[in-house]
Amino acid sequence: MPELTALSERLLGQAHALSQAEGWPHLPNDWGNMIANGRGLGLMSEGALIGTVLWWEQTTHATLGMVIVAAAHRQRGHGARLVTEALKQIGERNILLHATGAGLPGYARLGFVPVGIIHQHQGHAARPPLPDTDLDISRMSARDVTRIADVDKAARGWDRTDLLQALMQKGTCWAAARDGRIVGYALERHAGKGSIIGPIVADAPETAQALVTRALHTAKNAFFRIDSDPGLGLCDWLEAIGLSKVDMGTTMLKGEQPLIEPSVPVKLYGLASQAYG
After folding, report:
1. Neighbour-count burial of 91, counting CB atoms closer than 10 A to its CB (0-12 exposed, 13-18 middle, 19+ buried)
2. What digits encode the pLDDT tens for the residues 60-107?
3. Peptide bond before 199: cis, by omega within 30 degrees of 0?
4. In degrees to the nearest 10, what's the CA dihedral of 124, 244, 34, 219?
5. Which of 6, 95, 184, 264 is buried deepest, with most CB atoms within 10 A?
């Protein structure tokens, strides 16, 4: 029987090969960052890595992703075995993931329930003019993470300070303030074919648009990806600037919904990634 092992950087090359076989855009460096920021398991058969799962524990919640089983080893319960062991190690935290259509039934059998939809947008975006706005948009460094983490927690529902600091060290973070109060932020970093812009947190779609526009103007890459909830009003604008919808995922939860304070008018307009959430 294949054996479970901790997923570490020594297996990075094989993990990258698994995601390449699925047509996923992750680079070896992306895998390295995800492993460094979280925990993971691999499934080994005759010295070869045939399956992976990664997760990121963040106070009351955890996110789970990068669930892959090599095509030649499917339909044998390996995916369920990987995720079940991850759930044991995560413990009592509430767990969020983003499932493909093929993965939905298996996650449902493990107790996950659908709670939303995410549209994946990507492409060579146009760079629209910077909007005339009352927002003060400025760059934030990793030293400013607590200012960003407060507004992120208001939108996400739990504290992600450690993850945000790690992401800010790898990318460029723009914050939007109005009357001296931060009302949103967007983080752009190199990943896959180009750049991911996310997380994106904002008090209105127009704020999210202004932050994305600033990120587009300052990024070195020309190819971008944004994962957004279509119910929040950003997706049509993303289509208009050239970021086409290419896929969708179902947000699934095992446990309790995040406690989001309704009086705080910020929302999560873009994910850090479908794995990170």
Report:
1. exposed
2. 999 999 999 999 999 999 999 999 999 999 999 999 999 998 889 999
3. yes
4. 30
5. 184
Report yes or no on whether pTM surpasses 0.85.
yes
Q: What is the DSSP letter of 150?
A: H
The C-alpha atoms of residue 173 and residue 140 are separated, in whole angstroms, by 5
Q: Are strands 61-69 and 94-99 parallel, antiparallel or unpaired?
A: parallel
Give 10: exposed, middle or buried? Use CB within 10 Å, 0-12, 13-18, 19+. exposed
Burial of 94 per CB tally in 10 Å (0-12, 13-18, 19+): middle
Distances in Å between the Cα of 171 and the Cα atoms of 58, 180, 221 are 20, 24, 12
Helix (H) or strand (E) holding 57: strand 48-58
Ramachandran bin of 150, using left for φ above 0, alpha for ψ from -120 to 50, beta for the remaining angles:
alpha
